[in-house]
């Protein structure tokens, strides 16, 4: 079951994906819709904001019946992070609560990731990525409280289980990840 505001957001997404087929343009339009959602009150049901002690938790909130997109909440306790990874599809991320650090990487000729940039995203901030370029990153909760972000993926995450395409070796000098997502609802 969705909140009323999430139901409206899903209807907006259905219009976007029906009207725009180019992945980059689609992600940009989804980002605008997500910005509007983040400041609108009750967005997620309480069960979609439950963390897990062993790793960040992924809750599938909605899957489009035509498999064009999925809405997922990721819930992070302080210090939890992803491995360095890339994606199977375009992705739009908005921070609902807490703070997330995103480290972006470039791959050298041998496929080894090297840090390119770091950003700190607070509530209301939205970013997106479109494979195959510029989508290698690591995300973590670098704050001292619970972080919740809403992700819109251009694939059926209910079937795939994850948006991660490949996991890369840990770059020299970085700490290993604290766990893969734990399945939610």
Task: Report what the structure shows.
It is built from 3 helices and 11 strands, in the order ααβββββββββαββ. It has 185 residues and is of the alpha+beta class. It has a single domain (4-183), classed as Jelly Rolls (Sandwich). Helix 1 packs antiparallel against helix 2 (23-38). The protein is globular. The mean pLDDT is 91.
Largest sheet: 6 strands, mixed
The coarse overall form would be: globular
Identify the CATH class. Answer: Mainly Beta
What is the CATH superfamily?
Answer: Jelly Rolls
Number of strands: 11
Mean of residue pLDDT values: 91
SSE series: HHEEEEEEEEEHEE
Note the beta-strand portion. 25-35%
State the share of residues found in helices, binned by percent.
Answer: 10-25%
| CATH topology assignment | Jelly Rolls
| Tally of helical runs | 3
Distance between the termini: 11 Å
In short:
This protein has helices spanning 4-19, 23-38, 157-160; strands at residues 57-63, 70-76, 85-87, 91-97, 100-107, 113-121, 126-129, 137-140, 147-153, 164-167, 182-183.
